[in-house]
Amino acid sequence: MSETSRRRFLGVTGAGAAAVSASALVPGTAWAGQAHLRDDSATSPVVAYVSDVASDEVTLLVDEREVVVHDRDLVTRLLNAARG
Q1: C-alpha distances in angstroms, 37 versus 14, 23, 34, 42, 45?
Q2: Residue 2 or residue 45, greater confidence
Q3: Residues 74-78: contacts with CB within 8 Å, 24+ apart?
Q4: In the chain, which residue ranges form alpha helices assigned H by DSSP?
Q5: Contacts from 56-64 at CB under 8 Å and sequence distance 24+?
Q6: How confident is the model at residue 35 (pLDDT cuts 50, 70, 90)?
Q7: For the whole prediction, is pTM greater than 0.70?
């Protein structure tokens, strides 16, 4: 992803990510498991991007990096939290 399009993407999705985060805090909108942070967990903001709702792929934008995760349960929980 080019730097220009990444900045534009982050700017446009910033409000959406905040809305998704806020809706995830509402009881019943997302699964509330007993997850624990590891010592090497990200410490800066993270944006999650699901390009295909039928897939198991989530792209995480962390600082200047993109991390692709394949986790169907995570995709499902994000989509449920977003309640489109």
Answers
A1: 23, 21, 10, 9, 14
A2: 45
A3: 74/48, 75/50, 77/30, 77/31, 78/20, 78/48, 78/50
A4: 3-25, 72-82
A5: 61/6, 61/9, 61/10
A6: confident
A7: no
